[in-house]
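Rotation project, supervised by the postdoc (A.L.). Task for the rotation student: set up a whole-complex structure prediction and record inputs and outputs verbatim in this book. Inputs entered:
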Amino acid sequence: MAALTPEQRAAYWSRTSRLMWIIMTLWFFFSFVIHFFTVQLNAFKFLGFPFGFYMAAQGSLIAFVVLCFWNAIAQNKIDKEFGVAED
Amino acid sequence: MATQSKAFIDNLGKIYGGYAGGFIGFVIILAILEQMGVPNKIIGYCFVFLTIAVYAYIGILSRTMELSEYYVAGRVVPPFFNGMATGADWMSAASFISMAGGLYLTGHAGLGYVLGWTGGYVLVGVLLAPYLRKFGQFTVPDFLGVRYEGNTARLCGVVVLFCASFTYIVSQCFGIGIITSRFLGIPFEAAIFVGLLGILVCSMLGGMRAVTWTQVAQYIILIIAYLMPVVWLSIKLYGNPIPELAYGQVLEQIAELEKKLGVVKPHVGAFLDAKGQFSWVEFHNFWALVLCLMVGTASLPHILMRYFTTPNVRDARTSVGWSIFFIFLLYFTAPAYAAFAKYEVYSNVIGQNISSLPVWVQNWSQVGGLLTIKDGNGDGILQLSEFIINQDIIVLSMPEIAGLPYVISGLVAAGGLAAALSTADGLLLAIANALSHDVYYKMIDPKASTMRRLTVARVLLVGVAIVAAAVAGTRPAGIIQMVAWAFSLAAAGLFVPLVLGIWWKRTTAAGAIAGMIAGFGLCLFYLVGTRYFDMQLWWGIRNISSALFGLPVAFIVTIVVSLMTEAPSKEMQDFVDSIRVPKGDLAWVKGAVHD
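Outputs recorded:
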């Protein structure tokens, strides 16, 4: 076991959990919340698209890709900080 | 290649780069042959047989007699390539053939599939993949068996896995049958078994290792095949090589044509019923489907087990990023496919003289039942209501819509076949591994030798494949529908015990087992009841989103029963702690069986 004291372990997990909740909240926003308002958002134009339709066809997809890479990078940083990153 | 040499892993970029170049060269040669007058049928044969031959070659090169090579590809797959393999594993006949067609027919409602089949990777990457990689065993039920201390949880996991993956694989065999029969010109039932050979040569000898390296090869073919026709069309019509950008403009033109043609349900309109009015039932069905597909993504064992193959936890996380990136390339393009096809139909087909329709319409209307033209009012002009198109032919007919040579049609068929074969392989392996590793080795004969375990695994693999092909031969339902059921079944049965097992230490074995049975049971009840016994829909939610009911029930039952039973032992809590940290050994609970 990497030598983490119980306090360090708790701190590590609370940082990890916080990152998880941030990403899950954004995920929820781009998966559901924004699409609840598709009808209203369609009143706006974006690159020729009605904006609500654009978000479902392209916008949210881009957000998902960014979220996945961001999660990997941010979590790796936390791992390094606590010295639990793999060699 | 007894064990994978380091040189092979180091040179993956060169090997697959050369392979992609070689494939493009192959397409060019066939294009030249076509110009020289080689008949279309021969070109179709070349695409189907030569690509399968390549997969078989990789499969045979990757044969192995080592357990960790067979089950988890030796855990040496770099994240970038695992991302490609996951992309092929993930994108099936439903994504490749049916999705763009669904978008064509339903407009905004079809985007539920696009969202649902991408966003789930956020759940995989954040909640599951790194922790399952740290756990480091062979299968998903392995995790349930260790975390919930015993074979009851393991068996529940195997049952859910089997039901979900089997439904899924039947749909893929169905897709393989459609493509093979069309391009080889043989009956559907026979075509399924030809395709079956294609599946088996990839996976039987080399297990996960062979499937991994063929899936990378299949990804390269399927993405080239999907992008090429639509990019070509985009350049031709709009002078813009990026169809995703050209497509905003197309939507505006479609909207104008819709007004002219009096379409009641505009392409971009959201949550509309058949009359074009806003409908709450459609609204709820939209988000319910998105939720079920996303959670299902994070529960399907053939996807989760791909992250068992990376060298470490960090790579598993990065690999999820690459996976969704490679999947995104196709999903980002699918809606553009649909819009281009719709524009073409509205502007050059509808309202034309029936005797002077474009060539592609004439060609496809001769293939049985996929495209029907009926001059209802007998005026010789084609009305919108007189034109009926099947969703599975939008992608397959795009090369002809774009006026491209036949070689591109062959390419698209090879791409569709690659998509269906790669997914079928991943699923087959997930099922056979669960049966050979979890049921046979862990429950029936824990003393079995390596040789015996690998033999059993292969026999089961062939057995499951034959049964799946036989069931597909009965044409039980449409491709997309079967796939969506598989997602719901997996979501209701596996998501809760996996996620809570990692993120909530208080989850007990009794809680997890009760939750799985309740969630999966309810989902299955709703699915079977509404499909086969005329049960009323609950709040109008269609049965492709059955997990909408099973999932919350699984959560509630798991939590309530866990709180009513005694907390897991100190050792088990330490074990969960050790899964949460990337570095260091696992703190195995005494008596836990592991490799």
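Student's summary: Chain A has one domain: 27-87.
Supervisor addendum: Chain A touches chain B through 49 residues (CB under 8 Å).
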